[in-house]
Task: inverse folding
């Protein structure tokens, strides 16, 4: 049945088929296995894993090296996980979420607070209303205009391709549509600063960094076009002047005949 205590429980194993209520906290060095709900108003620490097939609700912090869930995980007071967080269902948080070693979610991620991360890897489509990148001038130094933008763009080559999904199943690249982009190794030869290399030696491109380059290249192309138009118009005026002069000379010659 129910287990209720106002003191601490120190055990190597806790097994419950009913409700377990721990008001003062529980320290379990072994596994916690329950088919029902676990409710705790104090800190819950599980050094070797916490397996819950029902709901788990806590208004305090959960401190763990790993959490694995096949259902919904809800953290009202926040969770600090030093290992990986893996869930095949939704992950919902009304407080701060920090993942120092990675956050892997195959379902939905919903949060009303800020997510702090040093990196995010997605093998699917990321859809959002907008993405803003930090760009305030006060954070920047050594600001210089982009030179030779048109020459640089002409050295880049856009390609169409398909992902080799069947050869790299662990990369979870399941999109079988024709893609358009650049080859990272080729871009690195021209713009090494926009290419990153991970611990496995695989390369990626910061495509947003190409936008200012393309902007300046378009401006340079427009400037060249205007300059060419000016030269062409000047040439036309010179030719017209020559024609007018020749016509005048012909008319004067006819008068002498």
Result:
């Amino acid at each position: 049945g129910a287990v209720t205590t106002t003191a601490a429980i120190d055990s190597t194993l806790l097994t419950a088929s009913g409700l377990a209520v721990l008001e003062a906290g529980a320290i379990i060095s072994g596994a916690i296995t329950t088919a029902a709900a676990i409710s705790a108003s104090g800190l819950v620490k599980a050094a070797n894993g916490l397996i819950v097939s029902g709901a788990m609700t806590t208004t305090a912090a959960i401190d763990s090296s790993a959490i694995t869930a096949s259902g919904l995980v809800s953290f009202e007071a926040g969770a600090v996980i030093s290992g990986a967080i893996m869930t095949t269902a939704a992950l919902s948080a009304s407080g701060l979420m920090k993942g120092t070693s990675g956050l892997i979610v195959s379902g939905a991620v919903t949060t009303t607070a800020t997510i702090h991360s040093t990196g995010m890897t997605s093998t699917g489509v990321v859809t959002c209303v907008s993405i803003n990148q930090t760009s305030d001038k006060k954070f920047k130094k050594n600001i210089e205009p982009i030179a030779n933008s048109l020459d640089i763009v002409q050295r880049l080559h856009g390609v169409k391709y398909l992902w080799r999904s069947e050869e790299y199943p662990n990369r979870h690249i399941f999109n079988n549509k024709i893609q358009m982009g650049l080859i990272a190794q080729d871009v690195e030869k021209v713009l090494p600063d926009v290419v990153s290399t991970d611990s496995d030696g695989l390369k990626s491109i910061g495509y947003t960094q190409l936008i200012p380059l393309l902007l300046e290249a378009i401006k340079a192309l427009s400037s060249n076009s205007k300059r060419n138009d000016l030269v062409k118009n000047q040439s036309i005026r010179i030719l017209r002047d020559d024609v007018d002069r020749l016509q005048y000379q012909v008319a004067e010659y006819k008068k002498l005949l």
In short: The helical segments are 149-154, 184-190, 210-256. The mean pLDDT is 76. The chain has two domains: 3-116, 132-257.
